[in-house]
Amino acid sequence: MRKLLAIITLTLLTFSCGDSAGDVTPSGYSNKSTSSTGVGGSTARFNITGNFLYLVNDSELKAIDISNVENPKVASTTNLGIGIETIFGYKNNLFIGGQSGMQIYGINQDGSPSYVSDYSHTTACDPVIANDNFAYVTIRSGLTCTNDFFDVNQLITLDISDITRPYDVDHDQMINPRGLAFFNGDLFVGEGESGLKRFSLANPSNPELIEYYDNIAANDMIALDKTLIITRDEGIFQFGIEEDSLLLYSPLK
Amino acid sequence: MRYSLLIIPLIFLACGPDETRVDFNQETVTGYQPVYADSSELKISLEAAQEIDVAGKIYSYQNLLLVNEVGKGIHVYDNTNPRKPINKLFVRIPGNQDMAMKNGVLYADNYGDLLALRVLADTVVVLKRVENVMGFNKEFPGANGVYFECVDESKGVVVGWKLTELSQPKCFRP
User: Fold this and answer.
1) Disulfide-capable partner of B31 in A144, A213, B15, B147 (CB 3.0 to 4.6 Å)?
2) ipTM of the assembly?
3) How many Cβ contacts (< 8 angstroms) between chains A and B?
4) Fold of the domain built from segment(s) B39-130
């Protein structure tokens, strides 16, 4: 009996550890950096969650054990199919963007990833970000993507409240969408040379365009608490938000 | 008429094995050629701050902002005040595209390898190199069923594979 109790207690402990590890995920909805790890843009191929660095190359997901930060070791390799481009971590899930769709992998207690579900779409490039109930994916046709036949430039909203069954609830026509971020409660989407778009998530299943900054070229971005860091071809630009308007803080040279 | 429908798939099947037979005596064939770099081009080093030329990915860690210089390394900015970021230094990492940090250790790709680095005031220390994780292999190209020019180590280290016309290649990846 005592043994059984010990096992139950241990199991519960393990679970609660798992949960708290999820809470410190760096690139979550709040986009807060913690003291121990940082935050990347939505087009990143690297993601650190807990004691693992998850990286995607063109066709694989590698889980790299960094419990000893100075001595990384490959713990597992998962085949994903070709054309993989981005990884985004939220809580205990990894959202992987590729040229043929989005795949969701869950992170097990031991840090190993396991397949949960996927959402396929026509061939296009696609970073993805997510919160508890929704994932936002951009797809675009262009020179660096393999799709030449269809003009697919969209922001797709996926309902992921059941993580095992993602489905699309909204499609917004875009010009040439790239990276995206949650900032100041809104969804920002880079349109490359065509500018930056801001969507209200008052109804998260149906993002509503509230502002189009056609003079702010934007590829990818990182949202911190009060700063939006935007990359474009010629450099990096930082914006603050004051009285609900974007204000240029600094260009980086 | 009905038979002709059957014959077509048979012809395709018959052609199959012939096309995949490896022939090392072809005059020219499309395949992969190694791209070499000599070891001086592969050096990882700490350099004075440089201006951004081609901006790649970005990473925010505590008060630092890291900016990838596509294929060349990482610019390190002190971003304590986002209105006045200070360009501090440049970490030269050939082949670099991505990065992340934990507890002061910088992880960065270096062509096909992953490096764990510690950046100090006057130097950068390679703590660990994890080979061939970025989906690139120094010994053979990534594609299957392709001819390639055999690697000649005297020419340097392989840092990429270029699709081109080869004359009489002696290597094939099944």
Assistant:
1) B147
2) 0.83
3) 144
4) Thrombin, subunit H (2.40.10)
Nearest-by-Cβ selection for A236 from B58, B100, B133 = B58
Cα nearest neighbour of A87 on chain B: B98
From chain A, the residues in CB contact with B100 under 8 A are: 37-38, 40, 44, 46-48, 53
Direct distance between the N- and C-terminal alpha carbons of chain B, in angstroms, rounded to an integer: 38
Give the residue from A124, A120, A129, A167 showing the smallest Cα distance to A144. Answer: A124
Name residues whose C-beta falls within 8 Å of residue A22's C-beta, 6 or more positions apart in sequence: A49, A91, A92
pTM greater than the 0.90 cutoff: no
Q: What is the C-alpha separation between A220 and A109, in angstroms, rounded?
A: 31
Domain boundaries, chain B: 39-130
Pairwise CB contact (< 8 Å): A72 & B134: no
Tens of pLDDT, residue by residue over A95-146, are: 999 988 899 999 999 999 999 999 987 667 679 999 999 999 998 876 444 4
Give the helix ranges, DSSP H, for chain B.
2-20
Tokens (6 digits) for B139:
């010994």
CB within 8 Å: B133 and A64: yes
Residues of B in contact with A73 (CB under 8 A): 130
Does the distance separating the beta carbons of A236 and B67 come in below 8 Å? yes
**Burial annotation B25-44 (CB, 10 A radius, 16+ → b, else e):** eeeeeebbbbebbeeeebeb
Q: How far apart are CA A150 and CA A148, in angstroms?
A: 6
DSSP state of B154: G
Of A38, A53, A232, the CB nearest to B61: A38
Mean pLDDT, rounded, for A186-199: 97
Q: Tell me which CATH code domain A31-252 carries.
A: 2.130.10.10
Residue A139: phi and psi, rounded to 5, are -125, 145
